[in-house]
Every structure is written in C-alpha cells, then in structure tokens.
Automatic annotation (TrEMBL):
Residue span(s) of domain Creatinase N-terminal: 3-133
InterPro entries in UniProt: Creatin/AminoP/Spt16_N, Creatinase/aminopeptidase-like, Creatinase_N, Pept_M24, Pept_M24_MAP, Peptidase_M24B
Keyword Cell inner membrane: no
Domain Peptidase M24: 142-342
Keyword Repeat: no
Protein name per UniProt: Aminopeptidase P family protein
One of the Pfam families matching this protein, by short name: Peptidase_M24
Gene Ontology MF terms: aminopeptidase activity
Alphabetized UniProt keyword annotations: Aminopeptidase, Hydrolase, Protease
Organism: Thalassomonas haliotis
Length: 360
C-alpha cells in the first residue's frame, strides 16, 4: 500500500523513478532498520541497495524489495544506480535532495546523465514524509507502547526524588528504567532540569542539586519498533508557591484548550491559536513558548509543525504533541506535553502519567 501510494505520486509528477536516501524513509517503506542503504523505486520494481554488513538483515526485513548487495571495492553506488536505471529504461528521475550530501549526489548525477534514457533529473522534498503524516494502526500501537514505557519509568523514579540529588543523576536513573522496561533507545536526549534551569526549553541535565521549592521539569521519551514517544511533566519539590500554582494552571488551561479544539480537518495554525490566546491574555504572555507541538513517529519531530504559520490540517491518524510552556529566566519554566492521536473515536491521549502539580 505504501509503495503503491508513492508510485501514484511519481505518476502525478511524470516521473518513473525515485531515489530514497533517508534511513527512516527506507524503514517506513521496507521495514529495513539498518543503515548504509539506498532505495530505488521504479514503475515496476523496488530495489534496496546495501552492502555485505546488512545483506542478511535486509533480506529478512525488506520482503517486498529486491535486495542487491554492492561490492564496495569493485562498484560505486553511483554506477550501480546508473546500471539499474538503464536496465529499467527510466526517463524521469526524482531524488531526495534533503537526505544526501553534495559530493555523493554529484557522483550519482554524473553517472546518470551519461545514460541515453534519462531525460530529466528532479529534486524532491518530503515525498515519503507526506505518506508518514497519518499513522496506521500498527504505527499508533508502537507509539502507544513507547508512551506506556515512559509512563512507568517516570513513576518508578519519582520515589527517588530527594534533596541533594542532581539533575544528571535523576536523568540517568530515568533512562535506565526505560531500558529495563524495553525501550530500544532514547527517543531523544533527556531534558531534566531543576529550579531556575527549568526555564531552558532544551537544557542539558547538569550537576545542579535539587533544593526545596524547586520546579522539576522532565521531558523524555522511549522507543518501540522504531517509533518514539515524547512527554513533559513539571513538578515542585516541596510545597508549591502561589506563583508556581498560578503558572502551572495557566499552562494546563492552554493545553486543555487545544485538546478540546482538536478535531479532524482543523488547521495547525488554528489549533495553535486556541492555546496561544490563553497564554497571550495572561500576565506571562512575554514568556510563552513560540509553538504548540509537532508530529511524532519514526522521527521525534515530524509533520505537522504546529504554530502560527502551520497551514496543514490535522487528520485522522495524525499523532501529535500538545506542549504549551512558560519559561521565565531566573525563575523557571513549566511545560506540559502529551502525545495525542486523532483516532476513530476522537482524541486519545497516549501519554498517561498524572498531570497534576505534584508536590514531591
């Protein structure tokens, strides 16, 4: 089905061949989870080109593809691609321009332009990414499983929170718990910050020690079958101040406004506005984060990117994050983030760790 839809794209652009270089796009199309691979899709055939290191893995995983093992010392990738294009009598070639470096592409282009059959070479962007926009039931299940691992890992470390523990120590423990629970890898580098450092939207855990009254911001995710989760929770160590409670409720209201507005066909910019209007009407409008969220799947950040300029519509099967935040330098930051999917029964929240302002 995926290959059929991609071939339909080729037809609409009067092309009969597409070169795919992105590891993630190759995995999406073929189930091959290795590296050092290139896919050539023609009107009739699907080729996966790799070398001896990944040959057996490619044969086992990419069952709908003709797997070709290139002998690296005897044949360049460019010459192998040209050979296949000649064999297939391809005339119009498209290639993923955003996933190959200039030197590598120049070699391929030089070889293919020597062919009598090739009449046009055209760069394309997001050809496969557009197919990845709406997730299948299998993909949603994998993201949900990753989210469940993250939920449990977070629950496992909360009893370890104590005065004097460092950001780095707690982050390492969280990552260890995800690994024990079956996460294949980290979805991304864990963000775990205390106190004033929680105002850094993508701060790196440090040796900063936890003190009574500190905010604790934790943004992290697990991976299952290549699919990623992404969740943020914010806590207070000790009794929350009036301002901490006020800002937390503001962020939660902004997130809930977006969740309530989410429905098939809504534009990303409109969804953003439901949340942003609440933040912009507050005394903290100058400290609001710029965007609302993003798609999540094989990549941590996928289409759509939800913000004021997002003209894409959110459709059934889209898995997105909703993550408004307030970041006040010298004071701290509060972000609440969930993975949500527009399923057959409406909005489903995949990340289920409690969201109340827990006073640890």
């Amino acid at each position: 089905m995926k290959l059929h839809r991609l071939r339909q794209q080729l037809l609409t652009q009067d092309s009969d061949a597409l070169l795919i270089f992105s590891d993630l796009n190759i995995r999406y199309l073929s189930d091959f989870s290795g590296h050092a691979a290139t896919v050539l899709l023609t009107g009739k055939n699907s080729y996966l080109l790799t070398d001896y290191r990944y040959l057996e893995q490619a044969k086992a995983q990419a069952k709908d593809f003709t797997v070709i093992c290139r002998q690296r010392e005897k044949q360049s990738l460019a010459s192998l691609i040209a050979e296949l294009l000649q064999q297939e009598q391809c005339r119009q070639l498209m290639f993923e321009s955003g996933h190959i470096d200039v030197n590598a592409w120049q070699q391929i282009e030089n070889e293919t332009r020597r062919l009598d059959t090739i009449k046009q070479i055209k760069a394309v962007t997001a050809a496969v990414e557009k197919l990845r926009y709406c997730k299948s039931e299998q993909e949603i299940t994998a993201i949900s499983q990753a989210a469940q691992i993250a939920d449990q890992a977070l629950a496992n470390i909360l009893p370890l929170v104590k005065e004097g523990i460092t950001e780095r120590e707690l982050a390492i423990e969280l990552e260890y718990q995800m690994a024990l629970l079956g996460s294949e890898e980290l979805s991304f580098a864990t963000i775990l910050l205390f106190g004033e450092r929680s105002a850094l939207p993508h701060g790196i855990p440090s040796n900063r020690k936890l003190k009574v009254g500190d905010l604790i911001l934790v943004d992290f995710g697990a991976v299952m079958n290549g699919y990623r989760s992404d969740m943020t929770r914010t806590y207070v160590f000790g009794k929350a101040s009036a301002e901490q409670k006020q800002v937390y409720q503001l962020v939660r209201d902004a997130q809930q406004a977006a969740l309530d507005a989410l429905k098939p066909g809504i534009k990303g910019s409109d969804l953003y506005r439901y949340s942003a209007d609440i933040l912009q009407a507050s005394d903290y409008k100058n400290y609001a984060g710029e965007g609302l969220g993003h798609g999540v799947g094989l990549e941590l950040h996928e289409l759509p990117f939800i913000g004021p300029a997002c003209g894409q519509k959110i459709e059934k099967g889209c898995v997105i994050t909703i993550e408004p935040g307030i970041y006040i330098p010298g004071w701290g930051g509060i972000r609440i983030e969930d993975d949500v999917v527009l399923g057959p029964n409406g909005v489903e929240i995949l990340t289920r760790a409690p969201k109340g302002l827990l006073e640890l």
